Each structure stands twice: as structure tokens, then as C-alpha cells.
Amino acid sequence: xxxxxxxxxxxxxxxxxxxxxxxxPWIQLDEIAQELAVPRHFLGKVxxxxxxxxxxxxQKGPYGGFCINENTLKTSLLKLMExxxxxxxxxxxxxxxxxxxxxxxxxxxxxxESLRRQWQALLASTFIGDLIRKDQPxxxxxxxxx
Length: 146
Hints:
Layout: H1 5-19, H2 29-36, H3 40-52, E1 56-59, E2 65-68, H4 77-83, H5 109-125, H6 128-131, H7 139-143
Antiparallel strand pairs: 1-2
């Protein structure tokens, strides 16, 4: 499974905030976009969604920006997928042959359903806090676009 750009920008933005110096609680959008080498406008839309859903806090003004909150590190990747609109289309055949289901399965339907359940379980049990690596010196570079 591939993640959308919205999901990737959201996760990378949150990880950047989570890795930021605690002495500087508010990080401006321009800094995040520049450090991660992502489009500022698109990142701004994604970050606003995260604020709206309570995953991040924001503050307007020259000393404002974005910061993590008590919900951030407890947010699952599945929840992040829902926020960014990355909902898998149910009933779409993995082979794109036709719509398939348990009564009318494609040749791979049953194997794929098992994998989908495992994938959902993995995303539901992986939290943003599990992904932050403050002990890795090159972590920010690893989440920046190449």
C-alpha cells in the first residue's frame, strides 16, 4: 500500500514538530516546509486539518506557529489516515478486474482481505509517539524530501 502525499506531509510535519527543540514551542509553517522540502501551501492545508482534529495546536501571529499537544503522540497512524482523507475504497478489486466481495471474489480476494485486516491492525496499533527518534542525529534528514 502506498500513502498519499497528504498523509506523508502530515506525518513528516508532526515528526518534525516532535523532534523540535523544547525551548522553542511554536514552529512556523515556513520553517517546517523549508526543512522538509515540501510545498508550503499544501503543507499549510494539511496542518490546518490536524489542528481542526485536535492532533496539533496552532497560534497566529509573528511568534505563533504549530506545536504538538497531549493528543499528538497518542494519535494512531490509522487516525492520521482518516484525517488526511486516505480511506481505502471498500469493494474495489485489488486486481482492478471488477468489484469483488466474499460472494463474488476475484482470484486474490481472500488473500488480500487477510492482508487488509493485518494492515489496518498495524496502523491502528502504531502511534506517532512510536515513530519519533530523538536519539537519532540524522532523523530530520531522513524525513526531509530528497
